[in-house]
Amino acid sequence: MEKDFQKQKALIKRGTEELLPEKEFDALIKKSIDENKPLRVKQGFDPTAPDIHLGHTVCLRKLKQFQELGHQVVLIIGDYTGMVGDPSDKNETRPRLTHEEVMANAKTYEEQFFKVLDRDKTEIHYNGEWFAKMDFSEVMNLASKFTVARMLERDDFSKRYKGEKPISIHEFFYPLMQGYDSVVVKADVEIGATEQKFNLLIARKIQEEFNVKPQCVLTMPVLPGTDGKMRMSKSTGNYIGIDESPKEIYGKTMSIPDELIYPYFELATDASNEELAQIKKTLDSSDTNPMELKKQLGRDLVSLYHGKDAAVIAEAEFTKVFAKGDLPDDIPEVKAVDGELIVDLMAANNITSSKGEARRLIKQGGVRIDGEKISEIDHKVEAGNEFILKAGKRRFLRISVK
Questions:
Q1: Ordered domains of the chain (ranges, CATH)
Q2: Residue 332, SS3?
Q3: In the chain, what is the straight-line distance between the N-terminal and C-terminal CA atoms, in Å?
Q4: What pLDDT digit, counting tens, does each position of 121-162 carry?
Q5: Alpha carbons 186 and 210: distance in angstroms, whole number
Q6: Beta-sheet pairing, 72-77 with 122-126
């Protein structure tokens, strides 16, 4: 374990929003060092979608720093909270997922966690381990630990209540359940994104009610998506998935606005404080070409999840296709039948995540056949044709029609 308090504190605070209560946290770290006893640092993940993207890794990378300092990371996979759905930052009730849907997503989460974290220093629990065993009297006991008035202090609940939008009773259970997770695993620290602050602080109250020492809270900023406008999310299509191919990760990185270069380096890479200072200095210089830093960022991100060799290949491919206007060497080839819809082909061959995304891309003018833009969402292929389909800036298909 790192014995220098100042070194621990500096690394832990890097890139964070808030550390609450900070004096209590300082005492916690000092006691951990004095007793050579690792802190239990918790984060919960609700597997509401199958993939982890760079936005998720902001907190995962902070957990990794705790591991490097010698602390114990405790991950909670919310198979039960996932069925409720976190109401944070939502203006309406989320659709409920079945347990089967949540568990299918959870399998991919476990695999992807360890692209960032050290498996040997990570403890994983599903919160169904305890919630599935609760009888109704225990549920009522948990519900008695917090008031409706306090719940309505929460901004999203307050806005919905004042706007006469429905709030389902089960949504009130979400922060209680998240807090009870901290009771069970005896969390010393919990990490979450900024919009999680209400839930994280409720957990302190729930722990006290169950005679467990209340955790400290560390909040992390939300990573903007590749559009630079909205938070990174698969539903808005502005994400970089850590399981995506090297050329997708590199290509998407090259598309981000220049103002995201520094926060991406800070929150999504292993850049040291010294490297970050140099990056900031370079960006602030009037004669800087941000493209070179963006290339470095693309290489760093690909290297993290696919290795340095893959990063070199991805950069060369990007340069060939976009700087020189050539086609990539490895265009997937597919067979189609006469009358088949382009949107069906795009979705079936993972050019887009769904037919809906394919339709949106066509409407935005982002789909071309042999260089010609198509505008009809019901565009059909014709027998005897062979052509190159380009979707967005980086996705290609070579299609031959019977």
A1: 5-220 (3.40.50.620), 246-323 (1.10.240.10), 333-401 (3.10.290.10)
A2: coil
A3: 64
A4: 999 999 999 999 999 999 999 999 988 888 888 777 778 878
A5: 11
A6: parallel
